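A reminder from the course coordinator: this example appears on the midterm review sheet, so study it carefully.

Given structure:
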């Protein structure tokens, strides 16, 4: 359970009140450890699958500059450790929300409908299974750089369409559909990556 951003904890240095999302104590100015808040709250963004990427980068870079460990090189060991912990938490939040697949899975978890993208078991959806079998068979049989490039583009186009579907599902509060499409996006992403790798191998072959 994520604590609300307004939750208050005592500053480790002066014991003054500090909000969960705060980087520094407003009383003594000491850097704080990362509070227990979700990634959206940490970066000051609305909880949504649809993210303004420019706003994400601005928020991340602005906060990261303030707690970068280099700024605490002359501080106490505790302050160095806390600044590093803040920087790590911001990196994790940024990397998760920047990636559509990780963002979808993370948001589903926040909304109480988790999906396991690390599972490597059998695909339960027959339509998805058939789609993946056909696409993988086509990639395995592709022998020219042009054909592999075409398959990579098809997979990437399908990924974009899938992301649009995930957005629509979240907006309609259809979490089951969002989860289903997140799993499809995982397999499409993997296929696109394998196609790009095969194209590179073919390009390098004498």
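Designed residues:
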């Amino acid at each position: 359970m994520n604590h609300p951003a307004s939750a208050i904890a005592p500053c480790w240095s002066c014991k003054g009140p500090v909000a969960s999302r705060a980087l520094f104590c407003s009383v003594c100015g000491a850097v704080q450890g990362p509070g227990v808040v979700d990634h959206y709250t940490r970066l000051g963004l609305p909880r949504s699958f649809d993210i303004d990427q420019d706003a994400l980068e601005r928020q991340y870079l602005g906060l990261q500059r303030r707690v970068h460990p280099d700024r605490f090189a002359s501080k106490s060991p505790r302050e160095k450790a806390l600044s590093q912990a803040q920087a790590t938490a911001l990196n994790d939040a940024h990397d998760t929300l920047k990636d559509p697949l990780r963002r979808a899975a993370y948001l589903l978890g926040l909304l109480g409908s988790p999906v396991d993208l690390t599972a490597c078991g059998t695909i339960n959806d027959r339509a998805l299974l058939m789609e993946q079998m056909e696409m993988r068979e086509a990639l395995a049989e592709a022998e020219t750089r042009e054909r592999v490039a075409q398959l990579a583009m098809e997979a990437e186009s399908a990924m974009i369409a899938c992301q649009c579907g995930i957005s629509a599902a979240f907006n309609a509060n259809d979490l089951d559909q969002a989860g289903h499409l997140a799993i499809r996006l995982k397999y499409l992403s993997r296929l696109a990556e394998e196609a790009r790798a095969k194209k590179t191998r073919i390009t390098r072959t004498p």
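The helical segments are 39-42, 53-67, 77-98, 100-110, 126-141, 145-171, 175-204. The mean pLDDT is 91.
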